[in-house]
């Protein structure tokens, strides 16, 4: 469960489609998010923006995630684009 002011990177990404969308909404680069510790807390200023500006409808007054907004924490997987086929 999310509690007030200790959101992890995985939890933050789970509130958006992916890390790229989260980065865009926060106005930072994807590489900045990739530097966050996987299991540690995200920077406080970014958590506050997520909780109170971007996704405030997802949290109750105590700062806990509302049950209808809970999604399983998805493992972020990088997918490689297939290389173009060469025509001889």
Describe this structure in words.
- The chain is built from 4 helices and no strands.
- By secondary structure, the protein is mostly helical.
The profile of the biggest β sheet is: none
Q: How widely separated are the two ends?
A: 56 Å
Order of helices and strands: HHHH
Tell me what portion of residues adopts beta-strand conformation.
Answer: under 5%
In round numbers, the mean pLDDT is: 77
> What is the strand tally?
0
Q: Which structural category do the helix and sheet elements fall into?
A: mainly alpha
Low-confidence stretches: 73-77
- Binned, the helix content reads 25-40%
The outline comes out as elongated
- Discrete helix count: 4
Output the radius of gyration: 16 Å
Features:
mainly alpha, 34% helix
Provide a short characterization of the protein structure.
The chain is mainly α and 88 residues long.
Topology:
Elements: H1 9-14, H2 19-26, H3 30-34, H4 44-54
């Amino acid at each position: 469960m999310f509690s007030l002011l200790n959101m992890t990177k995985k939890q933050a990404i789970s509130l958006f489609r992916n890390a790229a969308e989260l980065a865009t909404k926060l106005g930072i680069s994807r590489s900045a998010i990739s530097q966050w510790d996987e299991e540690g807390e995200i920077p406080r200023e970014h958590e506050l923006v997520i909780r109170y500006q971007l996704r405030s409808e997802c949290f109750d007054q105590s700062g806990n995630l509302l049950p209808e907004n809970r999604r399983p924490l998805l493992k972020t997987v990088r997918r490689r684009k297939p290389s173009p086929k060469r025509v001889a």
